[in-house]
């Protein structure tokens, strides 16, 4: 059961002018489930992406990087059920065959198509099923199919993940809509397992690569479920250029800040939804680290806490065994850390001060917070003014069950 995350409603998701989406059941791994999605982009759309830093990256990631370097992307093909990772040269051939099939159906060049895959690793991609399903997916393409797309890219997700916002820029209504998927194998070293964010804003195409990186840094690169960086992580940002406002040429401008804030809000909602729907998750946990010399060391400490199986299982059990958090702070890798400067809070409960138990701390107060579905862990390092945060979840029995049974 996802933590305080409801299923999105189709009527809450605004279509993005210049984007059409089709979704079908292609039988890629299991029958009777949406598993093949196409995005069709009008001419003139700008597209950028960031991808996994896992050196064992999937074939579609490699092909996407190649095709994005050429620009003029007009279509995306996404399959679930099979990751096409750990498949060697054959996997690259199959990913490229997917692009060729879509290009032929749409009268495009193969380099104008981006392929994405998610699912089981080290199994051959059934590209014949994708080829058979593509005509129906293309025929199904409509501007309002965002919810269908969110459902069509799921694997172990229990809920579709989709959010939308509209803002005014120079008097024009601008739309931002996005979807993501992911529940396990989540410690993005750039993005989430799969995320797609589109806006109809007019944005200088040269700005999009840095925008995609900045959005990922502020959202998907701040979440972890289990500390595993996927082979297939991909986050794509699209600007269709169809809104009726002057082009944005800088994100330091008033219009640029309005757009970036809206896109960051949707990106964070998508990223946090992955944690809320983490495999077997029962609690959503914010880990905020303050008083660091720089943001990088704050993130280092935050991730040490968020990745710790001992910390995560304690949260599942609502057991205020909070020395586990202090231990994680200590092994995070700050060589000159002075434990006498450490402060620890659970929400409003001051647990530790100056590196030791706060004399006024009572275990029943800690347990009260630990029983909540949403918890904030706040750590003070006493080293400077920097701060950063990550979002994570607990580890339950269900996490083991899901991953033990994943291929069955």
Strand order of the largest sheet: 13-12-11-14-10-15
Main sheet: strands, sense, barrel: 6 strands, mixed
Which architecture of the largest domain per CATH?
Answer: 4-Layer Sandwich
Gyration radius, rounded: 22 Å
- Overall geometry comes to globular
**Low-pLDDT segments:** 188-192
What number is the mean pLDDT?
A: 93
What is the CATH class name of the largest domain?
Alpha Beta
Question: Order of helices and strands, N to C?
Answer: EEEHEHEHHEEEHEHEHHHEEEHEEH
The CATH superfamily of the largest domain is known as: L-amino peptidase D-ALA esterase/amidase
Walkthrough of the structure:
The chain folds into two domains: 10-276, L-amino peptidase D-ALA esterase/amidase, CATH 3.60.70.12; 284-404, Roll (Ubiquitin-like (UB roll)). It is 31% helix and 25% strand. The protein has helices at residues 59-68, 88-106, 127-139, 146-152, 208-217, 254-276, 295-307, 309-316, 323-330, 363-370, 397-404, and strands at residues 19-24, 36-41, 46-51, 75-82, 113-120, 161-169, 172-181, 194-199, 234-239, 284-292, 343-346, 349-353, 356-357, 374-380, 386-393. Helix 1 crosses helix 2. It is globular, with a radius of gyration of 22 Å.
